[in-house]
């Protein structure tokens, strides 16, 4: 058989095999980190967590610990507790099937609240002040929602320590060659002279889950901002705005035993 024909035959066989296996599963808001695992692009945000609460009938057990969250965050969660006639929020139908039937959006007065806060404030901040058990409940709910909307069943969980060791890339915001801040850590300093509230918050509080450039895999905020719970209770990784850049490296971890204002999470999806 001529070499060209053999090459064409092999290519056709490979294509047929790929078609038979089907395309890799894609789920909105996640990126693939290996052949069997998807990871949420960002830390779970306030908006996501509020959607979780709304889609679970405003279950009081799902609210963050009010003693360890910022004042503006506390106000909007108290607003959500009203269940209707909100001041800062509104509940709408959600068209993204992987996030439940309802979602929470900002109302007109939310902007006034954000403007008066001396720190940067947005529903895109990572949710903190939640317990390991609450994060586990979120993962189970997310798993059920996803499985209701697709044929191929998946599982959702907190990432293992081993996964974080693989995906954290050990960037350092203190590099002399770094002309811009690349993570929110305790040593971060505002380079805008206070002109930008979000930049001025660096090293002092939480920032948006998409504040910095993603890794080559497409993951945002793996280092700094909010430390992230692992599947092992009491062990978080990635560091936060309260730790130095070095503490966000993949050979370091942060310990906790309760809800903390610097501690959040993201989830992984096992596809097979």
Round the mean pLDDT to the nearest integer and report it.
88
Can you summarize the main beta sheet?
A: 4 strands, antiparallel
- CATH C-level: Alpha Beta
Q: Do you know the CATH architecture?
A: Alpha-Beta Complex
Structure report:
With 272 residues, the chain is α+β, with helices and mostly antiparallel strands. The protein has one domain: paralog of FGE (formylglycine-generating enzyme). The chain has seven helices and ten strands. The strands form three sheets. Strands 1-2-10-5 form a four-stranded antiparallel sheet. A four-stranded mixed sheet has the order 8-7-6-9, with no helix packed on it. A hairpin with an 8-residue loop joins strand 3 and strand 4 (102-106). The longest helix is centred in the N-terminal third of the chain and has 19 residues, at 3-21. The protein is globular. The two termini are 39 Å apart. Residues 1-21 have low confidence and may be disordered.
Draw up the topology in text.
Blueprint: H1 3-21, E1 30-34, E2 37-40, H2 46-54, H3 71-80, E3 89-93, E4 102-106, H4 108-116, H5 132-148, E5 155-157, H6 161-167, H7 197-201, E6 227-229, E7 235-237, E8 254-255, E9 263-264, E10 268-270
Parallel strand pairs: 6-9
Antiparallel strand pairs: 1-2, 2-10, 3-4, 5-10, 6-7, 7-8
